[in-house]
């Protein structure tokens, strides 16, 4: 049976610089103020499966496609985190991120550093007990400040998340400081709202996406040479994209631009609009949705969200559709909704076309956020409530939780009608 927007529904079960350890989480806002130049109106119509909740993201497995449990929580953790394949490099050999200098200054904001030593994620709880409510998640190599450690639990703060984690899954103190130099990423932090990023380092180039203030994006190339950009163009840019660009002017201005990763693609932004530094990832503030409908969210929607969150930290693989062994953004949404009997198309653009548009004021957990520019969709994510989304971002980050408005969405689509 197909509904009016072409999605087959079966049944929904009720279920060098300095490493700056800056743990603040950017605010969520649907209204974005334009910068760089007046922004034309962009309306927001706005395999097996590791399932059970575990302190380090490992648990028992059920086969995808089988009935989803009513609620997956409070299951005893495995003694050790489940091993996961190392993520692929985000860049090809030809377009690699610049290596960090050998001597990197470590600038700590807190007295005692901890880094999550897990393969997927570490639950942050409201009290030092497995029975404590989940208030956030600390993904692999994320940093935190440790207040104290008692009876195997560490009281921590990371970003806007404060709570308790199992101390055995943290690297601490001097070892953490040494590890921070290795796992910290060079990122560009957006300094202004509605920042346009381009397909090439020129304001004449087409807009790839619009980014929100205070969001971090991994730096692919900070020092752009003429040789490098020529190689980039030959591999990634179509001839028609060069027609309206003053090529000589672009080459002269390369020093004022930086290449960043926006999900699994490259984009360019003027350096004056970003701050570049080394950072550790921070915890994301997120709780569990009640799958019995008592929390104001339908049981079907809550079950989809809780199911999707079990894959946090798993691998991104371009063209992949395995929720455990590697998937891309649309493969992730297709796999999650397919588990509940919804037949989504394969690509993000097709999924956008197949879903009914809803406004940002009416968004509900389980809706899909689509990102891109000029009506072109190049990324999709699942809204999980509280202004956050979960998505398969890129090989460096894998499946992650982000602010729903880290980029300006071009559409919000509805799959579940309730």
Give an overview in words.
Helix content is 13%, strand content 32%. It has helices spanning 173-183, 226-236, 247-252, 299-309, 329-338, 348-354, and strands spanning 8-9, 18-20, 48-50, 61-63, 105-107, 113-116, 121-125, 134-139, 143-150, 153-158, 161-166, 170-172, 185-190, 195-198, 207-211, 216-221, 257-261, 266-270, 274-279, 284-285, 321-322, 326-327, 342-343, 356-357, 368-373, 376-385, 388-394, 398-403, 409-414. The two termini are 17 Å apart. A hairpin with a 2-residue loop joins strand 10 and strand 11 (161-166). The protein is α+β, with helices and mostly antiparallel strands and 418 residues long.
Instruction: Quickly name the level 1 CATH class of the largest domain.
Output: Alpha Beta
Tell me roughly what share of residues is in helical segments.
10-25%
Task: Please identify the oligomeric state.
Answer: single chain
Average pLDDT across residues? 79
CATH architecture type of the largest domain? Alpha-Beta Complex
The CATH topology of the largest domain turns out to be endopeptidase fold (from Nostoc punctiforme)
Strand content: 25-35%
Please give the count of helices.
6
Q: Give the CA-CA distance, first to last residue.
A: 17 Å
The shape, in one word, is globular
